[in-house]
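Appendix B. Chain record.
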Amino acid sequence: MPRESLKSKRERGIEVCRRMQEMYPDVKSALHFDSPFTLVICVLLSAQTTDAAVNKVTPELFRRWPDPESMAAANVSEVEEVIHPLGFFHTKARHCVECAQVIVSDFGGEVPGTMEELVTLPGVGRKTANIVLNKAFGVVDGIAVDTHVYRIASRLKLVSAPTPAQAEPQLLKVLPRELWGPVNEQWIHFGREVCTSQRPKCDTCRLVDICPSAFKANGKPNARKPRRTGADKRKDR
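Structure tokens predicted for this chain:
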């Protein structure tokens, strides 16, 4: 089978974004934050858990440590107690405190506003940095490729990378820069509601006609095509 051209992928990607915009025109982050700092912490905590779970622990977390200065002086074990319901709470608590310490020591207590600076913060990679830049500073410097974005981009054959991190540069080549901004939030919602991990709802999906993986995600049938009746078969004779 011939390799698909970048032009063909780009056309499909643009159409995907157009339809996503129709489906989710005003989608916003489900995380509750009120500053660049609280956003950084929320995104750090959201790894391997749900936004709803993060929102349950952050009111108490930010009541006790609302800014970089107070978080930098926090005892890691006390932070662990607050975020204990979340997965990987030992590592996350350490990253929260260390991240705040670096913000105070290297950036004067202000969350930096560039990709190069953000990724120097403990626990912050490109995905987190992309989210912070986009939502806190209105800067679009890439696409935050999480598991939902990665799954959808892979099923749509827009990327062929083995990991989400490796998928981002491929996706950036396929999608025009002016379409990058809403991709993360729109595709997350789509991934939760329609293009789910185990049994995607291909039979009701608005992308089914342009999706190369429709009805065969994960290599197995995941939705049934309408069964043909005896009358339908007689029409073909």
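Further analysis of this model is presented in Appendix C.
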